[in-house]
Amino acid sequence: MxxxxxxxAVAALGVLGLAQPIKIGCLLEFTGGCAAYGQMARDALExxxxxxxxxxxxxxxxIELVYFDAxxxxxxxxxxxxxxIQVEKVVAxxxxxxxxxxxxxxxxxxxxxxxxxxxxTTNPLTTQVGDYLFRACxxxxxxxxxxxxxxxxxFGAKTAAVVIDxxxxxxxxxxxxxxxxxEALGGKVVxxxxxxxxxxxxxxxxxxIMRVNPDIIYTPNYYTEVALMARQARDLGLTQPxxxxxxxxxxxxxxxxxxAVEGIHFTTFWHPDLATGxxxxxxxxxxxxxxxxxxxxxxxxxxxxxLIVDAIQRxxxxxxxxxxxxxxxxxxxxxxxxxxxxxxxxxxxDFVFLKVENGQFVYATMIPAARAAEIKKLMGK
Amino acid sequence: xxxxxxxxxLFLLGLALFVWWxxxxxxxxxxxxxxFGAIYALAAVGxxxxxxxxGQFSLGPHGFxxxxxxxxxxxxxxxxxxxxxxxxxxxxxxxxxxxLPYSGFILALIAGGILAVLASLVVGIPALRALRGDYxxxxxxxxxxxxxxxxxxxxxxxxxxxxxxxxxxYTNLAWSFxxxxxxxxxxxxxxxxSFGRALRAIREDELAAESMGINxxxxxxLAFMFSAFCAxxxxxxxATLIGTITPDLFRFFMTFYLLMIIVFGGLGSIxxxxxxxxxxxxxxxxLRFVDTxxxxxxxxxxxxxxxxxxxxxxxxxxxxxxxxxxxWVLRGAQRAWRWAWAKMS
Lengths: 381, 345
Fold this sequence. Notes:
Strand content of chain A: 15-25%
Strand order of the largest sheet of chain A: 8-7-9-10-11-15-16
Number of domains of chain B: 1
Order of helices and strands of chain B: HHHHHHHEHHHHEHHHHH
Shape of chain A: globular
Distance between the termini of chain A: 72 Å
Shape of chain B: globular
Helix content of chain A: 40-55%
CATH class of the largest domain in chain A: Alpha Beta
Number of strands of chain A: 16
Low-confidence stretches of chain B: none
Number of helices of chain A: 13
Structural class of chain B: mainly alpha
Radius of gyration of chain A: 22 Å
Mean pLDDT of chain B: 91
Order of helices and strands of chain A: HEHEEHEHEEHEHEHEHEHEHHHEEEEEH
Oligomer: heterodimer
Number of helices of chain B: 16
Largest sheet of chain B: 2 strands, antiparallel
Distance between the termini of chain B: 35 Å
Low-confidence stretches of chain A: none
CATH topology of chain B: ABC transporter involved in vitamin B12 uptake, BtuC
Largest interface: A-B, 43 and 39 residues
Strand content of chain B: under 5%
Radius of gyration of chain B: 21 Å
């Protein structure tokens, strides 16, 4: 008996000694302009771990998430990342949601040699800082050209007007790449107009659009601005199809826009109805848990978590450098579909084209990642 | 030699040694907070000269920081980054032609400060001549917003909201503390000169000051220019500390933070601005445990409550309008010594 107890005690000590948790930092925006996205990401991560959709241990060691507020400020993200690495000794970082704070932390994590994945950092510059920086979403220079391709092939448009929100790097990037691709693929952009986040009156831009009368309007802005613009466009009698990007994928688009956003199409990376495997479980459990449809921001944060855990598993170690190397060769079925990571830190993913119909987001068509690569080639990139 | 001078000299020597040691050995986390502290303190020193000492309510320092930050960046960014960062609109002449080596960093910082001073003339000459109180605040606030919009739209210079990455991280304790010491010294000399007394006279009563023969407009403008210079240099240091710059880095919240620093430190006290800057940089990290223990984001609420409590019970801030002096330290030390002596015997 005594012997057995002793063996148990030794074993317990051994397990305790070995089972030091692996810490993953979550540098997310809980306050400031991007607070909503940071909160969605945390909700999704906590839910996925609680329900058991994602593993909570790897290599026999529990995974611990350390949440830090990035305050939507580059300075705060820089300090937060330093503390996560120096004090909390995390092996990888999930975050931030927005590109500005991400850039603030990027030079620091690169110098320290700790991989960092941004769930929704679409600014092309973010992963160019170095080889330790990744993203789970696709970049603006994939999504913009895909939208241009759809405008030409799906809508048969010859001319387009573009309305860009100049206060958002994301919108500027998408708009510019759309224009570049649309003209390279044979279309003509007849008007490039600008607005700013928070604008409520779009009469000036819409009057100009009425004057040039394009076949399609591309507006890669966030849902509030697009919903307001769509209302005013329909009031003015503009009937052209409106095309947008994944910044529209929020129920608020329909709440604010009402009947005016009916028929709006946009590019994004998933739709709950298309889910299979782990994604299907995620969607079903999420609906049960929160009583609403899952959002893309949370899903992408969970993707980051899955990618990191998979990398640790394949690397067989929780060493940041080994994780980085494994991440660069990741090919994994995650919540938002199959994700193939490139050594540059940008994933290759399929695109989904959605539309608003009867106040719902409905699947319209699919654009395989291969087509996105083809368009890039046509553009001479 | 007066004992105060000796003490100041010893303090600066100690600070120099600490900076020299800290840049090499200090834990990077503490190092970063000290750097941010020095930069906030530097901007706050300039800000308190116009807001506290002169009593002119300006809300513009974030605009001046933006100018200094971008100009320093454009001078220091290496050529290979200048070629890859501007994805849509190529970088404009003349910045696409050259880059400065590390030895030119001081020039870049001063150039950032000077650009801010020029901008302060543009807004200051009309605004300070005609406007007082709240109106000046509105004019400077508007100016900061205009600069933000320009930074978003002048893509050939700023790369718009995409921002600029890969700025060489030259800022270290030597630079940030060096700039802070030099400009704080200038601010103290300014405050204690006849010029500074004139500024304080303007704060107390503009009409009275004018009738005493003080050229009110000229004094206000010079104080405003000094404040802009400090902010410009601080912006340059900030950009080269974090290695990236976006228009969002210098939005109105930056002025708001500086305002908190100088009000907390004591409006019009240069010592208060310096101490306030460091406390401000450290307090968010000190409150980080609230985030982990309660709900992420909660520390901002705690921080706000702390501010309200300060304003309720500590209305004049940490230093009031007083300044740090060695006499004050020596008297305190003497008193503590006597107290300890009496306890022991």
